[in-house]
Amino acid sequence: MDTTGLRERAEAWRKADPDPETQAELANVLAKQDWADLADRFAQDLEFGTAGLRGVLGAGPNRMNRAVVRRTTAGLARYLKATVPDVTTRGVVVGRDARRLSRELAEDTAAVLVAEGIPAHVFPEPVPTPVTAFAVLHLNAAAAVMVTASHNPPEYNGYKVYWGNGAQIVPPQDVGIADAIAKVEPANAVPLLTPAEGRAKGLWRDLPEDVGNAYLRAILDLRLYRKGSDTLSIVYTAMHGVGGAWAALALKEAGFPRVTPVAEQQQPDGRFPTVRFPNPEEPGAMDLSLATAERVKADLVLANDPDADRLAVMARDAFGKLRMLTGNEVGVLLGHYVLTQGTKRARPHVVTTIVSSTQLGEIARGLDAAYDEVLTGFKWIANRALERTAKEGTQFVFGYEEALGYTVGTATRDKDGVGAALVVADLAAWCEARGTTVLGYLEEIQRRFGLHVGAQRNVTLPGAAGAQTIRAIMEAFRASPPKDIGGTRVSAVRDYQKGEGGLPPSNVVAFALEGGGRVTLRPSGTEPKIKYYFEHKETPAPGEPLPQARQRAEAKLAALIDAFLALARERGQPA
């Protein structure tokens, strides 16, 4: 290891770092001569991509910090001025969650924008990510920045960029912004104005409550049943995030008086004291919600992640037990509800991703709706909806991804956990009025369109050796795709790296199975993992109790998973 060169780079970065805390942090690492730590901090610049930035907070270019954000914002500002002629009129929205350093990073973002002559429409308090996405369209802004790390652990933060169409950026915008960032001067030389200087120039514009009120009106308008329920009991958790006050007000305005918050998790707290990993999908994350729901005998549990762009749902089954619905089950429920109970449209359009369930496609075809599958990530859902509306006149009504992300209608062009919570409550009230339940409605759909069960398995393979193993596994499945998996014939192979399916090239391989199942594999874009997605379709016999059919389906799914993981081990995956 070239420790002399590493020390020189670290000292140069430290001197240009505008934050005394990270300056001191780096000085301490240098004093200890912790070369492994330094090498990791300076291994690369934190990569700017279609998800913007996300990383562990700390000093150095491979961490999230104020120096990185100032340089990133300068690059974004200069790219916008080069590509969006009226950006200095329209401005850029700046929002933030309640994580550690979010306020400082958002203020730095606004300070750099206004120094570049671009108006910054700044939310003075933390807001949900969908509120920032909504504000882009509401204000006709040229772009937006949301400072958030969504559901990552507390040591993370991030920087998400939206374009003027309200959707997250896609290529070539990400490449253009990254190129502009690479040309930016050291962080301490990036021009910026203080909030007072920016306000004096009329460029730093604190957003009034009217914007948030407009968002609430927009999501209230997404409801289809619109009658609420005095009897439906709902438990809600904000998971220590920023959704609590927004969801509480929305549900109250929608006519749901019996909403019990999970008190320990209702207020924003970037330490996330009751959950190590504030993602509703993680083991243990819903324990407090379940305990609260059992105490008040709730019918429904709604959970947002910390920036409130995702939604988890629990509902009671026929035996009175609370069951966590999968992201695919919630997606199927909302998709069917919107297509059958919403305003009749000439060409309704629904969209999901290539790793989500195929069932939404079956429903769309059965109901004569337009349907698309896109790459993983809500940016692709929103941009495909816009593209097809412009070219074909379709009307986007719903999109989802299996990782608990949903959007109904076009109030926001990103996933919206608060809006989705409101529509799920509306759906539950509609079910109650019909004499059924949320899971009873799901059974109706499954009897007509088949019982789809799914699962995901992640294998963590850290470091350079792990990355090589992941590449080897992907290439082995490409070079020698299986003819069958666990005795079920592979009916088609789709390699998305070749641009198959009419989508941008992506490192994903999918095996369609005879009978309607599917196995999909891809490396994670943000973690050292390879991800496997499994789906099995079962057709319940006429009159067969659905729990019996589900038990059979789950057994077949488990066998499919075991068979595929055995194939993966043959191709190099560690046992």
UniProtKB/TrEMBL annotation:
Molecular function (Gene Ontology), one example: magnesium ion binding
Gene3D superfamilies, A to Z: Alpha-D-Glucose-1,6-Bisphosphate, subunit A, domain 3 (3.40.120.10), Alpha-D-phosphohexomutase, C-terminal domain (3.30.310.50)
Species the sequence originates in: Corallococcus exercitus
Chain intervals for the UniProt region annotation (Disordered): 1-21
Any matching Pfam family: PGM_PMM_IV
UniProt similarity note: Belongs to the phosphohexose mutase family.
Cofactor(s) listed: Mg(2+)
InterPro entries assigned: A-D-PHexomutase_a/b/a-I (IPR005844), A-D-PHexomutase_a/b/a-I/II/III (IPR016055), A-D-PHexomutase_a/b/a-II (IPR005845), A-D-PHexomutase_a/b/a-III (IPR005846), A-D-PHexomutase_C (IPR005843), A-D-PHexomutase_C_sf (IPR036900), A-D-PHexomutase_CS (IPR016066), Alpha-D-phosphohexomutase_SF (IPR005841)
Domain Alpha-D-phosphohexomutase C-terminal: 493-538
One GO term (biological process): purine ribonucleoside salvage
CDD domains hit by this protein: PGM2
Listed name of the protein: Phospho-sugar mutase
Comp. bias (Basic and acidic residues): 1-18
Chain ranges of the Alpha-D-phosphohexomutase alpha/beta/alpha domain: 47-185, 224-314, 327-433
This protein's UniProt keywords: Isomerase, Magnesium, Metal-binding, Phosphoprotein
Highest taxon of source: Bacteria
